[in-house]
Write a structure and sequence with these properties.
The protein is mainly alpha-helical and 217 residues long. Helices cover 66% and strands 6% of the residues. It has one domain. The strands form two sheets. It has a two-stranded antiparallel ribbon. A two-stranded antiparallel ribbon has the order 3-4. It is globular.
Amino acid sequence: MFIGHFAVGLASKKLAPQTNLAWLLAAPLFLDLLWPIFLIAGIEHATLVKDAPTPFLVLGLDHYPWSHSLVMSLVWSAAMAVVYWAATRDRRGASVIAAGVFSHWVLDFVTHRPDLQLAPGVPTEVGLGLWYSTVGTIATEAAMFIVAVVLYLGVTRARGLAGKISIATLVGFLAIGYAGSIFGPPPPSIEAVRIAGLASWLVIPWAYWIERTRPPA
């Protein structure tokens, strides 16, 4: 899942309006923020799949238990919540962030083919395989994203023109990127995937800028 994870972060603003959007977006994206780092370190592996049945299956996620297994998802959820609570003493925000991190595994479980390990060293792999249906995946993620944007706009207010531009550019960027991943050419190499994964870290300062231009309503 791609924009579905962003949807969780944006919608979380309604549950924790005082929590900075940078934290709320980082939470459901966190496993994917770790993943390219672990790829580069060589502790996780992925390949490109030729003649994939759908655009969502072009990436073979061969081994990624440290970032995406069930047990490690729970570990990362707790770790990020603790870090946030230590920095802010905001229990509500910490709970929402923990749920946001774990939501990544839940959504991946629904969409992925059976390639999610339960824990490092445990060979069992799970996944319900929504990605085998292009229409089903697009419909699910698009609906989530639209609802999330509406919820986010409802609990924040634009501080001048910048407040309108900041969120509009993010929404537009994600929509274009999502369409490109579906209808555009597949990644040329795993190296390109790693670079794109690392570039996703730029969303965090972008979200911080949005927060400065769109305070809670």
